[in-house]
Write a structure and sequence with these properties.
By secondary structure, the protein is of the alpha+beta class. The chain contains 13 helices and 8 strands. Bound molecules: flavin-adenine dinucleotide.
Length: 417
């Protein structure tokens, strides 16, 4: 499979879409056809419902769907993080039970990692999992849980042994969100949206069949999730039209035709065409007639170059040509910088319109929304400072940060409150 060229993959996807896309079928049926054709997540190995494509070819599948203006694969943290993590660490039985509902959009996932006292220092987490027969009883609080309010399942990391050093007493579970003892409360951001939530877990249960990897080996599994997260966030979007999967979001029974029109229009906030953010900004600048301004042109050109360089760096990392091991961290850092630059250059393009919200403003509100969201990429998936720490320690071989000995049992460590 991996010997295919990009052109061959694009041609195959085009033919498949032409034969299968139908505005009269439901979103659930479209995603089922996609999963049957193994196009929902072609990067996954064949035993997990994928095609075992290398990353650039897998991206080409979603990109082609984006160019053809059809609904892309189910979005969200299920396909992005949970599916590749399970493919790497779960048993075949777990893969067969848990991955297909992600690929056909029936199940949406969230990431139950961060806690009020454990973000950058994630291994300091205090949510507990206590064994009770064939089950585990979970107690604790998670926070910043993106799309937790729409999730059927969660990737949960919890402490199963406080006598072990902090990285060793953690286990990883596939956790059912819809059960007594799980209280999901939305957190409203300055964009006005409530993308993320805090999740209070009180005596909730997870069957041991849903423990991923050995008890106490959850940190290793979580690192696969975090690595996927960095690489995906660093790579940016594919241009595919994203529709939220799962039982709660309410899209599964809608007809594709009903969903696709507004989704195409919403893509990049205007014009409905498949463009990078820089292309979109150039388009707005052309419309406003200020694209000939030499200072603005220079800013746009610098932005275009940064976007391209990040794209090439990511492609290199994804093609498996990683030489330093830090490519994912670098891509994540550049992506955060890009988002800051989109804000700066975008506001230079629209000028005073940047002070007001609304679809009647230049760019139809896209730049204002980007401005309010722009601090987020330097925080989620590990902050800029944490990415630099990782590059410093793991790539450049600098000394580790001072702290208690790695062997100290978690129970004896000072806790973040
Ligand atoms: C939009 C968004 C979505 C998110 N979605 C999810 C999600 O779905 N699931 C989930 O589990 N989490 C999610 N997060 C949480 C995210 O991973 C954490 O916010 C992040 O890891 C930082 O943790 P913290 O907020 O606790 O900050 P802290 O760790 O308290 O950090 C505060 C500041 O101190 C700095 N700092 C901390 N430690 C060091 C150090 N050792 N060296 C140098 N500087 C340091 C940080 O860089 C930061 O500037 C999301 C966050 C955002 C913004």
């Amino acid at each position: 499979m991996s010997e295919l060229t990009r052109e061959e993959v694009v041609a195959e996807v085009r033919t498949w879409v032409e034969e299968n896309w139908d505005t009269e079928i439901t979103v659930a049926e479209w995603w089922q056809r996609m999963a049957d054709a193994r196009y929902s997540h072609p990067l996954l190995p064949e035993n997990a419902g994928g095609r075992g494509y290398p990353r650039p070819l897998a991206r080409a599948v979603a990109q082609t769907m984006g160019e053809m203006n059809v609904i892309g694969p189910p979005i969200g943290l299920g396909t992005m993080l949970a599916a590749p993590t399970l493919a790497a660490h779960a048993t075949q039985d777990q893969i067969d039970r848990l991955v297909p509902p992600m690929l056909n959009g029936q199940s949406a996932w969230c990431q139950l990692f961060s806690e009020p006292g454990a973000g950058s220092d994630l291994a300091g987490l205090q949510t507990k999992a206590d064994r009770d027969g064939d089950e585990w009883i979970i107690n604790g609080q998670k926070v910043w849980t993106s799309s937790g309010h729409q999730a059927d399942m969660g990737m949960l990391i919890a402490r199963t042994d406080t006598d072990q050093p902090k990285h060793q007493g953690i286990s990883y579970f596939a956790f059912e969100m819809i059960q007594d003892g799980v209280d999901v409360r939305p957190l409203v951001e300055m964009t006005g949206a409530a993308l993320f939530n805090e999740v209070f877990i009180t005596d909730a249960r997870v069957h041991d069949d849903n423990r991923i990897a050995e008890t106490g080996m959850g940190w290793r599994v979580a690192n696969t999730t975090l690595g996927e997260e960095r690489a995906s966030l660093g790579a940016g979007g594919t241009g595919a039209i994203g529709v939220q999967p799962g039982q709660i979001a309410g899209n599964l029974d809608r007809k594709c035709g009903e969903v696709i029109g507004p989704a195409v229009k919403a893509r990049l906030g205007h014009s409905g065409s498949h463009k990078s953010v820089t292309d979109a900004l150039i388009g707005i600048s052309q419309k406003l007639g200020n694209v000939a301004d030499p200072v603005l042109r220079q800013k746009l050109m610098k932005l275009y170059s940064l976007e391209k360089i990040n794209g090439y760096n990511t492609q290199r990392a994804k093609a498996g040509g990683t030489r330093t091991g830090g490519e994912g961290n670098i891509a994540k850092l550049i992506n955060a910088e890009l988002n800051r630059q989109y804000r700066e250059v975008g506001n230079a393009v629209i000028g005073a319109d940047g002070m007001v919200m609304g679809s009647a403003t230049a760019g139809e509100g896209m730049i204002q929304n980007m401005t309010l969201f722009s601090p987020a990429p330097s925080i989620y998936g590990g902050t800029d400072q944490v990415q630099r720490n990782i590059i410093g320690e793991r790539v450049l071989g600098l000394p580790k940060e001072p702290g208690p000995a790695k062997e100290t049992p978690f129970a004896e460590l000072p806790k973040n409150q």
